[in-house]
Design goal:
about 290 residues; transferase; methyltransferase; 2 domains; SAM-dependent_MTases_sf; seven-stranded mixed β-sheet; alpha/beta; Rossmann fold
Length: about 290
């Protein structure tokens, strides 16, 4: 296989799929306006990714103009922040804190810290920030405030030792932003490299390396290509076991523990749940070399 073909098959970086951003004055958004802005941004982003994959530069430029007219990435982030405010249901990390607090009882009296990598962080003041034994590293493609590192998770240097890895990775409303199924699979597989490999001991954090995953409920409950069982099969093949699961009318919250490398499997995009009203959200896992 030529080097050119190998490059063509490499999953796109998140930063390559995100459009240019513009800065607009923040205005109060109603719940309906917030939902419409987020939905419209996702639709335009998917269309842009498809055009980019086809090499249709003219359409990419046209969609970039539409995305900017719609407020760009910053307006999307503003809508997401508003959606996570207390009067709109609160931030998703509160669920994570509620799940972990009983299991980490006693750490407040020690020097041990739960190291968390929060991908797609929007704020340094969420529920995790208020737990003294949490050591949170926050990254996002378009940092909104000091304390959030501007970084593409798919470009973040791989850790060289266990001290540089994390006890937990948070992908809260991040995977659904990734515009294509293959890149979503690559993100899930890449997260394993950033998790600690040493098993917990009496002197360390008493939980297995974990992944906190939050998705819009329709991504799993109303997709042609993804069901809860398929999601579980995908993450199980990577080495994860589901230990906590919660679904609201809008979101699915899950906590997965990593128990070790398993036999890799391939998951293609295939119809599992047919229906005209269903969406096309999918996750594809490719074997190495395929």
């Amino acid at each position: 296989m030529t080097a050119r073909k190998q490059r063509a098959k490499r999953p796109a970086l998140l930063s390559r799929t995100r459009p240019p951003t513009i800065r607009k004055n923040a205005a109060a958004l109603s719940a309906k306006a917030t939902r419409n802005l987020i939905r419209s941004h996702h639709t335009l982003l998917k269309q842009r990714a498809q055009a980019l994959e086809r090499g249709d530069r003219a359409l990419v430029n046209k969609l970039d103009t539409e995305i900017q007219a719609n407020g760009g990435l910053e307006s999307y982030q503003l809508a997401s922040k508003i959606g996570q405010s207390l009067d709109r249901g609160g931030d998703s990390s509160k669920v994570l804190v509620d799940w972990l607090r009983p299991r980490l009882a006693g750490l407040e009296n020690t020097s041990s810290k739960l190291r968390i990598l929060e991908v797609g962080a929007l704020s340094t003041k969420n529920a995790c920030a208020r737990i003294q034994y949490f050591d949170v590293t926050r990254i996002d493609l378009n940092s909104q405030e000091p304390g959030i590192l501007k970084q593409d998770f798919m470009e973040r240097p791989l850790p060289l030792c266990d001290q540089d890895r994390f006890n937990l990775i948070s992908l809260s409303l991040v995977l659904n932003y990734v515009p294509d199924p293959v890149s979503r699979g690559e993100m899930l597989k890449r997260s394993v490299a950033f998790l600690k490999k040493s098993p917990p001991s009496s002197s360390s954090i008493p939980i297995l390396p974990s992944l906190f995953l939050v998705l819009p409920a329709p991504c799993v409950a109303n997709s042609r290509y993804l069901t809860q069982q398929r999601l579980q099969d995908i993450l199980s093949s990577i080495g994860f076991d589901l230990v906590k699961n919660k679904q609201s009318s809008k979101l699915i919250y899950q906590l997965w523990e990593y128990s070790g490398e398993r036999e890799p499997k391939e998951f293609k995009k295939e119809i599992l749940n047919p229906g005209k009203t269903r969406n096309n959200f999918a996750i594809v896992i490719k074997k190495k070399g395929s």
